[in-house]
Amino acid sequence: MLKKGKLKLPDGLGILVPGFDHKEEENGGSEPIFESGEELEIMEPNGVELGRKENEYEFDDLGVNDRVGDKVDAFRTRKRPDKDRSGQVSVMDVIAADERRSDLEYEFSQKEINLEKVKRIASMGVPDGVGLRATAWKLLLCYLSPSRNAWEKELTENRQKYAKLKEELLLSPSAYTRVRADAMISAELSREGDVAGPLKRQGISHGDHPLSVGKASAWDHYFKHTEIAEQIDRDLQRTHPDMKFFSGKSSFSKKNREAMRNILLLFAKLNPAICYVQGMNEVLAPIFYVFSTDTDEQNALNAEADSFSCFVRLLSDSVDHFCQQLDNSPVGILSTLSRLAKLLKENDEELWKHLEFTTQVKPQFYAFRWITLLLSQEFNFQSILRIWDSLLSNPFGVQDMLLRICCAMLLCMKSRLLSGDFAANLRLLQHYPDINIEHLLRVAQDLNADTSSYSLSM
């Protein structure tokens, strides 16, 4: 867990991020029984076809040591299937989704929302449409309070504070100076009764000059982030390239990428010790997509501001994984990978021994990306949204559910892993096949939520 104060946010952020300052069912509908080592059949994913990613990241080297500065430089482009294959949805699935939709609509209409009930419903998957997922995620990330009457005030204040942060940190010094000067002139004219007078020349101090190299110069700080901005732009260009929402030359996709660029660059400036790490764009993508496609027009127009705060909240539980200096600490990525290995050992020692000693496929060879990017590179986009419903609604936290899903991914491929060698197993885990996501999540949820005593229901 992130210690309080790890993400350094200015006082102006206020309540934007509170807490920093303080197999389908068979046999008559019975539940399928999972046996340890049972491999899930490869199935066509259900749901709306949102597009298959052509380019994704994988590791250049089989480890976590290839980094540049404080940033992970361990991703490269890899090929995935050209497109998703649409599967069939059973009548029972449709009925269940309708029931969850009705339950959530009812909960969201109450003056005081029962968060525990929202978590239970969301853990089974938030139905698409009518903005339910956007509202549910904002509640699950504590961006919205359970009191519905407070939402309008909270959203207005948070969005205004985000706009102020953008003005102060993303505008060039000269543009910011002009904005401030215009504001002062407008205020002065208002006080003088709008009486026209001679224009006043605005002075520029030495520290405000673009050629100033002083450490205190606003331009020096501005230019230092140029390289980061360029890296963000490159990564955004390959974010879900088959989805028109993110990719292409249309004004629509360009506008979306610009908004995501603002969020990532602002995060980097507010957190210089972590800055921007390649792959953060993939973590942001589901949040921004869900909020931007909210059926509430006002919420959709403010998706950028809402996404920023929720992105920060989501990373607060895993940001230490991006920091090289903390790799060997109790909160670093190596410690988390060790927890995954321990979890696998306690649930299936045979598979653990085969991976750890026989083929020597260590968790850092495949699970580094799984964990740091919250599985956003392993499945099609619709499946990612479903998985995140479970991650965000887990009562024990995102990281707890994330490790259980990662362990379930290994258990569900047991027979193939036991018959494979190093190369085959590494290829399988770095290019995880399409499977029944609901079955995978049931396996993960069957693991004990207590990370100190995981057990698999038989």
UniProtKB/TrEMBL annotation:
<feature type="domain" description="Rab-GAP TBC">
    <location>
        <begin position="127"/>
        <end position="395"/>
    </location>
</feature>
<dbReference type="InterPro" id="IPR000195">
    <property type="entry name" value="Rab-GAP-TBC_dom"/>
</dbReference>
<dbReference type="GO" id="GO:0006886">
    <property type="term" value="P:intracellular protein transport"/>
</dbReference>
<dbReference type="InterPro" id="IPR018247">
    <property type="entry name" value="EF_Hand_1_Ca_BS"/>
</dbReference>
<dbReference type="InterPro" id="IPR035969">
    <property type="entry name" value="Rab-GAP_TBC_sf"/>
</dbReference>
<dbReference type="GO" id="GO:0005096">
    <property type="term" value="F:GTPase activator activity"/>
</dbReference>
<dbReference type="Pfam" id="PF00566">
    <property type="entry name" value="RabGAP-TBC"/>
</dbReference>
<protein>
    <recommendedName>
        <fullName>Rab-GAP TBC domain-containing protein</fullName>
    </recommendedName>
</protein>
